[in-house]
Amino acid sequence: MKRLSWIKAAAVISVLLLSGCASDKSVRVVDAKVNLVEVVGNASAALLSSGIQGVSKERTILSTSFVNIDDLQQSSTFGRLVGDTVASELVGSGYNVMEVRLRDSLFMQPRLGEFMLSRELRSVSAEHDAQAVLVGTYAIGGEYVYVNARLVSVMDSRVLSSHDFRLPLNRDIRKMLTVGR
């Protein structure tokens, strides 16, 4: 009888211990540690290595904040930080980068979600001998934020280079997506 009680107790303890090892996937993502600068830096390196032939290091690349794909007129702390980090990586690679905050001077095609360059941006690019503009979007999912970075020609809106990546939607990133909007 004592042996049966001991077996039941051992079984209960085992179940409790095993349930403690089980984890809810969303809890892991919320608590996921990520070095945002490192991940964005790696994505920037991929953007540069994906074939930006013809982009001169002497001519200017304009840099903008990345925007929410669901509202192309809105950015956030996250969008500004990611745009600035990619721009920093371009500078570190020897490119001539100029920051511009032209949120309202970019014209979007609503159904396509692509950036088209406005006359104001063309004017700024001519003034600074710019050849391209760094643009990007992010989409907030359930567990991740998905980011697309692009270098776009100021002459014909052609995408010169593009790279996609994702980051876990942890507490830190979630806060940056909501603060400053």
UniProtKB/TrEMBL annotation:
<keyword id="KW-0732">Signal</keyword>
<feature type="signal peptide">
    <location>
        <begin position="1"/>
        <end position="24"/>
    </location>
</feature>
<dbReference type="InterPro" id="IPR041215">
    <property type="entry name" value="FlgO_dom"/>
</dbReference>
<protein>
    <recommendedName>
        <fullName>FlgO domain-containing protein</fullName>
    </recommendedName>
</protein>
<dbReference type="Pfam" id="PF17680">
    <property type="entry name" value="FlgO"/>
</dbReference>
<feature type="domain" description="FlgO">
    <location>
        <begin position="47"/>
        <end position="171"/>
    </location>
</feature>
